[in-house]
Structure formats: structure tokens, C-alpha cells
Write a structure and sequence with these properties.
Helix content is about 75%, strand content about 0%. It has about 150 residues and is mainly α. It has one domain.
């Protein structure tokens, strides 16, 4: 039966992989930040089903582990991920441009910080979904499996 460490060991590399794949057109720093966000999102997504349905028994699986709701949410995530990431990248590019145009040191720091957070979040979105889906996929392989709907 997959435990917390198994879910993290699977979810983090999947989150990084998807985030880096989605960010392949970004420059070095953008690619790094999105990959780091993918690791964070993968870990969060890999743990989230058990935070929503605490594993206090082998029968703990409820809505957060149910195949149909997870499939619907996964399809929604997949259909919108590119648009969400594009919006975050456009906002990050705006802050990058603002950082290059200002001479105020505090404003430079602020715009750099916001740009980096937005790029990190773009990767986190990819990792979150990948991690969540990997958790449910691992739980499908257990004797208890996952319910169709709960």
C-alpha cells in the first residue's frame, strides 16, 4: 500500500517533469523557477488527497480519491493548464519589463520578486495536477482501490 513517502517519491519527479516540459520555451531562470514550482506542486498534489481524506483507516477513501470526481477535475485542469500558465507568464513578463524600466532599487527588488513568484506558480500548477493524479493512480493499485464516486 503506497504511503506518504511513496506518494512524494513518485509525485515530485512527475511534477518537475511536467513543469519543465511545459516551460521548455522559457529562458534559464524561468525554466529553473517553473521546475522548482513543479517539485513543490508535485509534492503538494501527491499529499493533497490524504489531507482531504485523512488515512485514519484503510477505508479512508472518499470524494478526494473517487475516480469520477478526480477524472472530471483532472480533465478541467488539463484543459485549462496552458491558459493559466500563459497568464502567469504574461504577468511575470510584465514585471520583468517593469523591473528593467525602473531605477528605484526597491521597485527593482519588488518586480523581480513578483516575477519569480509568478513563474514558480506557473510550474506549481503543472506539478499540483501531476502529483494529485499520481496519488490516485498509485491508490488504484491497492487492494482497496478507489471508489468510482463517493
Amino acid at each position: 500500500m503506497p504511503n506518504r513517502s511513496t506518494h512524494v517519491r513518485v509525485a515530485v519527479p512527475l511534477g518537475v517533469g511536467l513543469a519543465v516540459h511545459k516551460a521548455r520555451s522559457q529562458n534559464g531562470l524561468g525554466l529553473f523557477l517553473e521546475g522548482a514550482g513543479g517539485a513543490f506542486g508535485g509534492m503538494a498534489g501527491g499529499l493533497l488527497p490524504d489531507l482531504l481524506d485523512p488515512p485514519n483507516s484503510s477505508w479512508h477513501r472518499s470524494t478526494a480519491h473517487s475516480a469520477l470526481p478526480v477524472a472530471i477535475a483532472g480533465a478541467f485542469w488539463n484543459a485549462n493548464l496552458d491558459a493559466w500558465q500563459m497568464q502567469l507568464r504574461l504577468l511575470a513578463d510584465h514585471h520583468h519589463g517593469a523591473r528593467n524600466q525602473t531605477t528605484d532599487a526597491l521597485a527593482v527588488c519588488w518586480h523581480a520578486f513578483v516575477e519569480w513568484v509568478l513563474r514558480f506558480l506557473a510550474g506549481s500548477l503543472a506539478g499540483l495536477g501531476a502529483g494529485y493524479l499520481s496519488h490516485v493512480a498509485l491508490d488504484l493499485q491497492t487492494p482497496r482501490c478507489v471508489p468510482l464516486i463517493s
